[in-house]
UniProtKB/TrEMBL annotation:
Record flagged with keyword Glycosyltransferase: no
Any one GO molecular function term: transcription coregulator activity
Ranges of biased composition (kind: Low complexity): 16-36
Region (Disordered), start-end ranges: 1-37
GO cellular component: mediator complex
Role description: Component of the Mediator complex, a coactivator involved in the regulated transcription of nearly all RNA polymerase II-dependent genes. Mediator functions as a bridge to convey information from gene-specific regulatory proteins to the basal RNA polymerase II transcription machinery. Mediator is recruited to promoters by direct interactions with regulatory proteins and serves as a scaffold for the assembly of a functional preinitiation complex with RNA polymerase II and the general transcription factors.
Family: Belongs to the Mediator complex subunit 30 family.
Coiled coil spans: none
Name this polypeptide is given: Mediator of RNA polymerase II transcription subunit 30
Nucleus recorded as keyword: yes
Subcellular localization: Nucleus
Organism expressing this protein natively: Acipenser oxyrinchus oxyrinchus
Keywords, alphabetical: Activator, Nucleus, Transcription, Transcription regulation
Length: 186
């Protein structure tokens, strides 16, 4: 099984000149990218990068599990030392990459939380937990307008349905009359 290549920061949505100006990440132990780079990126792009990071974490974890499944238990069978060392180094590399991905995800989360702090809603307000009551929904003036328009549309649809029902009843009565006349002629 081959290790995934470590790519530099992928920032979709940015023009190529701003991606080219990103400093290379030569120090994998550094926990923070330059502040100017993340400050320019909108939260939606940060969330997309976070989603890709989670997908990378899942794929790395799956590779670790596949590597562990392929490893034989030491039940008296001797394996070559080179095979053991190779698998051990692969496992160590996957774990190191996994820790870096978790650090990256944590930075993205903190930056998203920082940039969306002015929204005034915390994640617990947006998604209620099981067993808790949902917080009261704030109603804005636009909601009243939308509700009023919705009621108007329902009234129109109900009126049209009644008109259609009346027409269908009239057509049914007309067809019965025509069929009755046809049977009398025979």
């Amino acid at each position: 099984m081959t290790a995934l290549p470590v790519a530099g920061p992928r920032l979709p949505g940015l023009p190529p000149q701003s991606q080219a100006s990103l400093p290379p990440q030569s120090n994998p132990g550094s926990s923070q990218p330059p502040q100017g780079v993340l400050r320019e990126i909108p939260p939606a792009i940060l969330c997309k990068i976070g989603q890709e990071t989670v997908q990378d974490i899942v794929s790395r974890s799956m590779e670790i599990f596949h590597l562990m499944r392929a490893t034989q238990l030491p039940n008296g069978v001797t394996q070559s030392h080179a095979v053991y060392q190779d698998r051990f180094h692969k496992l160590q590399e996957h774990l190191r990459q996994l820790t870096l991905l978790f650090r990256k995800l944590r930075l993205l989360y903190e930056k998203c939380a920082e940039t969306t702090a002015e929204l005034g809603e915390t994640p617990s307000e947006l998604i209620p937990y099981l067993g808790e009551e949902a917080p009261g929904v704030q109603v804005d003036p636009c909601g009243f307008t939308a509700q009023w328009e919705r009621q108007e549309v329902f009234k129109k649809v109900k009126q049209k349905n009644q008109e259609m029902k009346l027409l269908m009843d009239q057509m049914r009565n007309l067809l019965w009359d025509v069929n009755a006349m046809l049977t009398l002629r025979k």
